[in-house]
Write a structure and sequence with these properties.
77 residues; three-stranded antiparallel sheet; 2 helices; 23% strand
């Protein structure tokens, strides 16, 4: 996944009125982590990713953190 693909997932979630699940690597952990971005936070979070991650979705300040995947979801608690 790259930044353009991630942007498309954000747009899809926004248009569908849904949330977005982001899978990323975590330093010193074997398993990945999943972050849920609520629909109302999509613009804020995409702006954050654009400013802080490379084109290949590696965090600028920690190369061990990388976004691997994103999926549009309907998250209800």
């Amino acid at each position: 996944m790259n930044i353009k693909q991630l942007e498309k997932m954000f747009l899809k979630a926004k248009l569908e009125g849904k949330d977005l699940a982001i899978e990323l690597t975590v330093p010193t952990r074997e398993e990945t982590e999943v972050i849920i971005v609520r629909n109302s936070n999509l613009d804020y979070k995409l702006d954050y990713y654009r400013k802080n991650y490379t084109e290949n979705l590696v965090l600028n300040r920690c190369k061990d953190i990388r976004i691997l995947n994103a999926k549009v979801i309907d998250f209800n608690m």
